[in-house]
Amino acid sequence: MCFYTKQTKKAVEIEFRFNAKFNQPDQFSPSDFINGFTFPKTPVITSNDPEIIQLFNWGLIPAWSSDERIRRSTLNAKIETLSEKPSFKDYISNRCLIIANGFYEWQWLDKKGKHKQKYEITLPGESLFSFAGIWSTRQDHDGKQKFTYSLLTTKANSLMSEIHNTKKRMPVILSKEQEMLWLNEVPVEEFRRSDPPLIAKKVEDLSNKNSQLRLF
Length: 216
Hints:
Elements: E1 4-7, H1 11-18, E2 21-22, E3 31-35, E4 41-46, E5 52-58, E6 76-78, E7 95-100, E8 102-108, E9 116-122, E10 129-139, E11 145-155, H2 158-163, E12 169-171, E13 173-174, H3 176-183, E14 199-205
Parallel strand pairs: 2-5, 5-11, 6-11
Antiparallel strand pairs: 1-3, 1-8, 4-5, 4-7, 7-10, 8-9, 9-14, 10-11, 10-13, 11-12
């Protein structure tokens, strides 16, 4: 799965890479560690407005849900079962690019996962890329529209199978060529295979340090 990412590039770099403009540039700030369980706002591009970079909250809240706690289980959505799950099936056409330049995963070093090794995973040169996502909007308690998203995951490739060695999952990472296809609603099945040229770097052993993070 994927619950921790990073986006350390400046707004101008993101705008150049995706040929789009931030609609709220003053509210954007780079981060070298984004914790999904804080439901942060991160930059996305939607199929509705491909020329605009918006800030949506991570953790999709379906329009029918009155309980925001649901987003703890909607940070990720399995691409294989997207059309079957009540939280996601209504939003298959609500496509988005989730902008990042890295993510983090933990390798279990023993059978019970008491000892783990943290990895930072990037493309060469820590270049910008996008995860495939779906998004929703609903009216908040104060009457404002709240925009939220889920990050899609798929079966791990060979590298990620070695790192995410328990559930063997990985995020769906889109190539530049795939990004517009995703936004243009090419069938979901076409994106189940994700095998970008990833680079994995050991960061630190989390058996003691940062043990407060929720690990899977």
